[in-house]
Amino acid sequence: MDAIFQAFQLVATWPVILTVASAALFGLLVGAIPGLTATMATALLVPLTFFMDPIPAVGAMVTCAAMAIFAGDIPGALLRIPGTPASAAYANEAYAMTRKGEAETVLGACVLFSAIGGLFGTFVLIFAAPALAEVALSFSSQEYFWMALLGLTCAVFLGAQSPVKGMISLLIGLFVATVGLNNPAGVPRFTFGSTEMMAGIDFIPAMIGLFAVSEVMRTVAAGAPAWENVQVKVGNIFGNWGGMFTRYWRQQLRGNLTGTAIGILPGAGADVAAYVSYAVSRRFSKTPEKFGTGHLEGVVEATSSNNASLSSAWVPALVFGIPGDTITAIVIGVLYVKGLNPGPTLFLFNPQTIYAVFLIFILANVLMIPLGWLVIKLAKGLLKAPRSILMPIILVFCIVGAFASNNAAYGIILMLVFGVLGFFMEENDIPIAPCILGIVIGPLVERTFVTTMIKSDGSFLTFVERPIAAVLFAVLVLIWGSILYSRLRGNREEATG
Fold first, then answer.
1. 114 near 67, Cβ under 8 Å?
2. Element (H, E) at 189
3. Within 10 Å of residue 470's Cβ, how many Cβ atoms?
4. How far apart are CA 426 and CA 401, in angstroms?
């Protein structure tokens, strides 16, 4: 109880409240601009967090991500250009409603059910994370090894449309993670004589380069085309809330549950949650023929799901230190910088910090409704901002952020290298998310594997001797087995015609 009271004291300060409000507006602005993802918004905030205390720093990133995920629905509905990948699953459906003159209905549904989904995922986080942390205290290197492999598996097969390209991206990330001094001998590995690279690849410039700089390059390569705007007058978004809530409560609840479950899986994230929920909604709908013609049912379920997954993705991040998605991967880096090493001990030694993060989650989702209404009103003006002005501003933010990570030009060089890498990856339809997770989880896989082998004197049996480790190994085998079986079955059906 003392920890909860202390958490209220930590949050109820002007610096925290002003930071959360500013981050909310920033997230809404970035999310509402097509092509600028929630991950990019979070990455751009990282340099500013260096100058903040831990609570406002984490609060800013939590709020920014939640707002950006919702705001991605706005250009999706008005222009059929999803602001973030998490909105892509139902952008066509939302745009079809706008063309029928129902923009206020679909945007009202997006803000209402996004806020409810975020609150649902937050309450799951509040109740599930402390209980899981107690279990995680009994974990040893074997369990963490299997958890890390489970995260990498989900990154490849759940987070990527093509498993082969997802695997390529993951291997790139794992290779980057091997740069530095090897474990345990401390021999330089892939450093090419550079003293800076002996400490490994700095996570922050790599993130900024992969997400933000690559987007700037892509826009420049395309000649910074203007947005294709559609004239529409957005009316009262609150008018249909009562009817929508009573009519679509089942879809909203199912979307919340699906999004929360997917968010807890390491490596899945809001994008996967939205696609799965939209497909589930169509599968169980009584009027599946209306999907694709401007039907609200799938939008409600998918938009509930992506915001619910955003909150629940913090469960593996806080409890095990394994990111649930790319956003929590970035936030984990900030937690380390602030001395708040994620893991079960965080719940023991800094419970007030954990509860403060939970309170900020709730505050962010409540703020989403008034601020979301404001941004919807201003959306048409935001979407008129020319890319030729926007992209140089973003690039300046990137350079400042990369330099601030270690106060050296080395950070800027890293950022540019990873920017080029990200550009070529996306030009060849290779997803970036598995690469990010490879960079984050790779050191954990290596460290736990080496530690386990040293403890067991080289015996591989120790990886399955502990009960929880054996269960995690069985889950991993089942996932790989089911994937291989479905592939073989698909090939056989194609062969037989």
1. no
2. strand 188-189
3. 15
4. 22
Across-strand partners of 188?
A: 181
In sequence order, the 6+-apart residues with CB closer than 8 A to the CB of 480 are 153
Q: How does DSSP classify residue 159?
A: S
- The DSSP-derived string for 208-251 is HIIIIIHHHHHHHHTT-PPP---------TTTTHHHHHHHSHHH
Local structure of 40: helix, strand or coil? helix
Spatial CB neighbours of 356, under 8 Å, sequence gap ≥ 6: 7, 10, 11, 55, 59
Integer Cα distance of 109 and 300 in angstroms: 6
Q: Do strands 188-189 and 180-181 pair parallel, antiparallel, or not at all (unpaired)?
A: antiparallel
Q: Is the pTM of the predicted complex or chain greater than 0.70? A: no
The owner of tokens 């479905």 is 486
Q: What is the DSSP string of 251-306?
A: HHHHHHHHHHHHHHSTT--HHHHHHHHHHHHHHH-S-GGGTTSS-HHHHHHHHHHH
Judged by DSSP in three states, 188 sits in strand
Cα gap 149→239, rounded to integer Å: 48
Residues 6+ apart with CB under 8 A from 404: 47, 50, 411
Q: Are 395 and 216 in contact (CB under 8 A)?
A: yes
Higher model confidence: residue 26 or residue 266?
26
pLDDT at residue 421 in the model: 93
Contact of 363 with 20, CB cutoff 8 Å: yes
Neighbours of 454 (CB within 10 A): 11
CB of 35 within 8 A of CB of 215?
A: yes
The CA distance from 443 to 183, in Å, is: 9
For residue 212, pLDDT beyond 70: yes
Cα–Cα distance for residue pair 294/91, rounded to 1 Å: 10
Which DSSP symbol is given to 182? -
CB 151 within 8 A of CB 437: yes
> Is residue 181 helix, strand or coil?
strand
**If DSSP codes are grouped into helix, strand and coil, which group holds residue 180?**
strand
Render pLDDT for 19-42 as a digit per residue (tens, 0 to 9). 888 888 888 887 776 556 677 778
CB 125 within 8 A of CB 355: no
How many C-beta atoms surround the C-beta of residue 238 within 10 A? 13
Give phi and psi for 26, each to the nearest 5.
-65, -45
Query: What would the two tokens of residue 253 be?
Result: 């609840």
On whether the CB atoms of residues 120 and 256 are closer than 8 A, the answer is: yes
Q: How confident is the model at residue 417 (pLDDT cuts 50, 70, 90)?
A: very high
Alpha-carbon radius of gyration of the chain: 22
pLDDT tens digits for 47-86?
788 788 888 888 888 888 778 777 777 877 776 666 666 6
Please give the distance of CA 392 from its chain centroid, rounded to a whole number. 25
Rounded to whole angstroms, the Cα distance separating 180 from 187 reads 8
